[in-house]
Write a structure and sequence with these properties.
Bound molecules: S-adenosylmethionine
Number of domains: 1
Structural class: alpha/beta
CATH topology: Rossmann fold
Distance between the termini: 32 Å
Number of strands: 9
Helix content: 40-55%
Order of helices and strands: HEHEEEHEHHHEEHHHEE
CATH class: Alpha Beta
Radius of gyration: 18 Å
CATH superfamily: Vaccinia Virus protein VP39
């Protein structure tokens, strides 16, 4: 298996644009759920695999007397954020430590599903939380794609999922059983929400998925997952305002230590 960022999703200008679209489309859903969980003003928060840092920056405003630790294996975008209570760290969630019982909130969006060590990471996160602290994990689940009425969309999205599952060890369905597993990690007050989104061609959500697939264009063609023509038609479909479908669902699961 390759590590995330080794050859797929390397932090370059395309990945930066993709992370900006991700924040634009998915931050409102994340904020809504984090508000419901209630973040104390002095909470110490950990944002795992923080990417562009959009959620970490927002947490700095919510926990206005607390500290926000934002980690990533490549913290280049986090290092650009200037906030007195934000600490950006190069930190690999699969291997690097934090002291036990040191955070009131741990949040990770679209990180754990990509890591083959996700179960071990869930146990590590549990150790880092203080008693009473919350974890919120967000991951995509692929089920809306299998029933798509657009054969090309179904094929290319499926091919892309096969590529990242085979290359990184991503699990595009793990999130579905996430809430049930929380009790086993030691959490109570477990909750979950699934957001299934309608997508129209040419919108930021469509652009996010178009760019996501485009970043793996060469690998998809060279690996025989999709042809050049199929990919070009897929990009045109996602730019077409007459195209409507569903994107992979976002499943949010949370629990209290
Ligand atoms: C799909 S991006 C999501 C970024 C951010 N969480 C968001 O939703 O906007 C996945 C992020 O996880 C980071 N990442 C991948 N493996 C990691 C690891 N082992 N430890 C920490 N971060 C990791 C990547 O560098 C990348 O920034």
């Amino acid at each position: 298996m390759e590590k995330y960022g080794q050859t797929l999703f390397t932090l370059d200008s395309a990945e930066e644009a993709r992370l900006a679209l991700l924040a634009e489309v998915f931050d409102p859903l994340c904020r809504e759920t984090l508000r419901d969980l209630v973040i104390a003003p002095d909470a110490r928060c950990l944002e795992v695999g923080a990417g562009s840092g959009s959620v970490a920056s927002w947490l700095c405003e919510e926990a206005r007397e607390g500290e926000v630790v934002a980690t990533d294996i490549d913290p280049a975008l986090l290092d650009r954020i200037e906030h007195p209570r934000l600490r950006a760290l190069r930190h690999d969630v699969t291997t690097d430590p934090f002291p036990e019982d040191s955070f009131d909130l741990v949040h990770a969006r679209l990180v754990l599903s990509h890591l083959p060590q996700r179960d071990d990471v869930m146990r590590r996160i549990h150790g880092w939380l203080r008693p009473g602290g919350f974890v919120l994990i967000e991951s995509f689940c692929w089920f809306p794609i299998d029933s798509s009425p657009h054969p090309l969309y179904r094929k290319v999205m499926g091919a892309w999922s096969d590529l990242i599952c085979g290359t990184l060890g991503t699990d595009s369905w793990w999130s579905r059983s996430q809430p049930a597993s929380f009790a086993g990690y030691g959490y109570r007050d477990v909750g979950a929400r699934t957001h299934t989104q309608n997508v129209r061609g040419g919108t930021p959500l469509a652009d996010f998925w178009r760019l996501t697939v485009h970043m793996s264009h060469r690998r998809l063609v060279d690996g025989g997952h999709a042809t050049e023509d199929e990919l070009q038609d897929f990009y045109a479909l996602l730019a077409d305002p007459d195209f409507w479908d569903l994107t992979p669902a976002l499943i949010q699961s949370w629990g209290r230590k």
